Amino acid sequence: MENNRIRPVDVASELSTSFLDYSMSVIISRALPDVRDGLKPSQRRILFAMKELNLSPGGKTRKCSKIVGDTMGNYHPHGDQAIYGTLVNMAQNWSMRDILVIGQGNFGTPDGDPAAASRYTEAKLSGMGLALMADLDKDTVDFVPTYDNEHTEPVVFPSAFPNLLVNGGTGIAVGMATNMAPHNLGEVVDGICATIDNPQMTANDLRAYIKGPDFPTGGDILGYSGIDNYFRTGRGSVRIRGKIDIEQTDSGKDILIIREVPYGVNRAALQERIAELYKEKILTDISGIRDLSDEITCIEIELKRDARPQVVVNQLYKLTAMETSFSVNMLAIHDNRPKTLTMLDAINFYIEHRREVVVRRTRYLLGEAEKDAERLEAFLLALGHMDDFIRIIRESKNRDEARERLQAYTFSTQTAEQLGILIRSQASVQGDRYVFTDRQVNSILDLRLYQLTALENDKISGDYAELLVRIKDYLDILANESRVLGIVKSELIAIKDKYASPRITRIIPFEGDMAIEDLIPNDTMIVTITHSGYIKRTSSAEYRVQARGGKGVKAATTKGAKKDAEADFIEHLFAAQNHDYLMFFTNTGRVYVDRVYEIDEAARSAQGRSIKNLLDLQPEEAIAAILRLERKVDDNGNDITFAEGSGNVVFATKDGTVKKTSLNDFVNYRKAGIIAINLEEGNSLVNAALTTGGNEVVLVTHDGMSIRFPEEDLRTQGRNTIGVRGIRPRTGDYVVALAIVDPTKTLLVASENGLGKRTPFDEYRVQSRGGTGVKTMNCTEKTGKVVSATVVSDEDELMLMTTAGQSVRIKVATIRETGRATQGVKLMTLASNERIQDISIVIPDDEDELPETDAAGDSEGGESAPAEESAAE
Predict the structure, then answer these.
(1) Residue 402 pLDDT
(2) Residues 560, 698: one domain?
(3) Does 763 lie in the same domain as 639?
(4) Are residues 622 and 748 in the same domain?
(5) Can you tell me the distance from the alpha carbon of 94 to that of 264, in angstroms, rounded to the nearest whole number?
(6) Phi, psi of 84 (to 5 degrees)
(7) 858 DSSP 8-state letter
(8) Would you place residue 766 in the very low, low, confident or very high pLDDT band (cuts 50, 70, 90)?
(9) Does residue 503 fall inside a structural domain?
(10) Domain containing 721 — which CATH number?
């Protein structure tokens, strides 16, 4: 055309340029969060619009349609549905680890149900949402014009907490996407403060503070490798499992209760998948499913009577979304460019942002303080020469003339200093004279008559002195980088103290992870197992040492404790280290092997979790014995706990059979368990013990008989064998304990009525196995039958457990040594219908203290120790 409005272009070049511009617009202005405040532009504009509407946490809520309208009209002209969807997401506590918006009304459900229309819902800012915008009015960040140049909006928020790490976020741009995991606020703050203190922090060091993702829906993260990968590189895959508990109904049927689902899993879709697997006859052990969920997940799956619960649990993890992966891609905007961040990058960029916010805020406050100081200087000078000033004002025709005459009125700088004026404004000094600035003159003209009083004069002087202190402090902050970073730390700690909550997602070791033990403290734990199969581990520090004969402390809240006939009780209690192996031998002769740290930790008074959650037990199986194997490694760090020559396991059964098997035969243990000893019909395993090959074995029966014989009398047999005769119990009698002889120690025997005694092994002669044995305790109506026996020394501490769940921890040295055929002394005061159920040696703790006792032997807070009694055979 003549006007040259149309010109030829290269199509490929034009498409490339236009698409690149479009891509950058999507990346920067829509899809990816900013590393500084963790927000996308749409989220930032919604929160800013809510702040402008004064929707504070302590105030009233407003209709979401009003919020959406203001956001769209003033800041974000991209459609009300997109804005409302973003607003809803920031109010869903199953989507955000710490919500930024408080919603009122239907904001959807974890089942995928949508939120109600914006005209039906209301919202306001949460405390953390408001914290993102703290000090926004103090020139802490830049503002830019909005799309229509009618308003201004912040480029980024001051962000008083690291929202990017705390809440994570997802976004799909052109050719790239972000998927950031949420973390625990308290852990992230600790990690940031540690990084400030140690600028040379490494990703491995950081793991001591930030454990890993903390999803709002809970669940278990399997292993540490995925966490380690994204900490170091910004990319990694984290495996998540939901939480499934195994419980029993009153009728004895097993049920699975899904209490937590993995992050992002739709509960309704999960149930549909389970029903589909049932219809396809893949999950054949399920008889029903009920959804009892509200905001808290509770999906009950009823099992058939012959079903093995742990097998069904494993199937659910394998075949449904109860186990899923979260692929972390830490991509965010930094310096107006997309960048893949390591965890340390994200922390350092946030620290730099907060450092800049603190500096800019301090400069703003300094400027405001200097303005106030300039005004108060004028007041002090005017009050010092008030007669002259009143005369000048009264003689002036108007305000402008008064302003000119006051501005011409000067003082010597010496006079100003005598009045206590620190001359801050250079515009006020001309040579050796002090002249008023325009702002000061206007302030003087605005003086009110009441401010001429002596009291107001003193107040102005005090305010001025306080301002000078603040100005000095602001200048010191700006001149001292360590003070700036100290303020960053203190403000983060204040946010943590106010808003941090405990971790929701658990991180558990997983097979295949390297050096799991290095990540788990090897602390001493007390492991307890109840008669109905509840297991837990508790820090040994929670058990305090008591005097012999005391009432004891509660070791577990047992099921049905108020119904004596159905009361649960502690059957097994022992001490172990977190890294140790546990060999669980069942009454049917099978063995399961697990690590101590794989058991859920709980408080001393807690019930614990069903052992079916830990072991794949057969329906008829119950735990009969547990052995603790201290983990051993060679010089190269290889685990040699089950190596050849590491020892033997000696078994004792109820009918008096014994067997010896090499520990090396158990090296190839399986999660589903393996055979440890073959048992004849009607027989059951009583106990198992570790031996070195040259030990002597003692068997103790319910009627108080015992036999001692050398281990060499037992030949080593494989796992799948029956064994040989150890003791021949009399009619109605049976074996209750197996012990390994230690000549430096004594054999402690306890009876069901709370009596016990210690006897040297010298009193037990060595016999050939297979006999009836000799008496080890004089069992009478007073003592009751023998319940257990164990080998002890004076330095040991003993834990006694009763059928009511009570426990008492006593020092063995307080129990007198007596003869083999005696009744013994009282170990524990029992309530009516209460019996001793089990005893165990406990590893002493340095923190444990024995309560003070007086000369009569009375223990503080307990009953006096009973007099020792013994009776000859």
Answers:
(1) 77
(2) yes
(3) yes
(4) yes
(5) 8
(6) -65, -40
(7) P
(8) very high
(9) no
(10) 2.120.10.90
Say if residue 696 is in the same domain as residue 813: yes
133 and 254 inside one domain? no
**DSSP alpha helix (H) spans, 480-542:** 481-499
Q: What is the pLDDT of residues 745-757, one digit of tens each?
A: 999 999 988 899 8
CATH number at residue 132: 3.90.199.10
Is there a catalytic annotation at residue 499?
A: no
Maximum Cα interatomic distance, the chain, rounded to a whole number of Å: 131
Q: Is residue 432 part of a domain?
A: no
The verdict on 771 and 628 lying in the same domain is yes
Structure tokens at 84: 């409302």
Q: pLDDT tens for residues 479-494?
A: 999 999 999 999 999 9
According to DSSP, residue 813 is labeled: G
For the segment 651-660, what is each residue's pLDDT rounded down to a tens digit? 999 999 999 9
Q: Of 301, 321, 341, which one is at a domain's C-terminal end?
A: 321
Q: Which of 143-157, 546-560, 629-643 has the lowest mean pLDDT?
A: 546-560
Q: Are residues 610 and 756 in the same domain?
A: yes
* Integer Cα distance of 826 and 846 in angstroms: 26
Q: What residues does 145 pair with on adjacent strands? A: 152
The domain tally of the chain equals 3
Measured in degrees and rounded to the nearest 5, phi and psi for residue 244 equal -125, 120
In the three-class reduction of DSSP (H, G, I as helix; E, B as strand; rest coil), residue 204 is classed as: helix
Residue closest to 732 by CA, chosen among 701, 754, 707: 701
Q: Which domain holds residue 311?
A: 243-321
Distances from the Cα of 797 to the Cα of 529, 814, 817, angstroms: 19, 10, 15
Q: How far is CA 412 from CA 381, 387, 392, 709, in A?
A: 11, 18, 19, 111
702 conformational bin, left if phi > 0, alpha if psi -120 to 50, beta if neither: alpha
pTM for this model (two decimals): 0.68
Residue 854 counted as domain residue: no
User: Among 22, 75, 84, 120, which one carries the catalytic annotation?
Assistant: 120
Q: Is residue 290 part of a domain?
A: yes
178, 171 contact by CB (below 8 A):
yes
Characterize the bridge pairing of strands 696-701 and 735-740.
Answer: antiparallel
pLDDT tens column, 376-433:
877 777 776 777 777 777 777 888 877 777 777 766 656 656 555 655 554 455 555 6
Where is the domain boundary, 160, 184, 200?
160
Residues 648 and 785 in one domain: yes
Q: Are 772 and 752 in contact (CB under 8 A)?
A: no
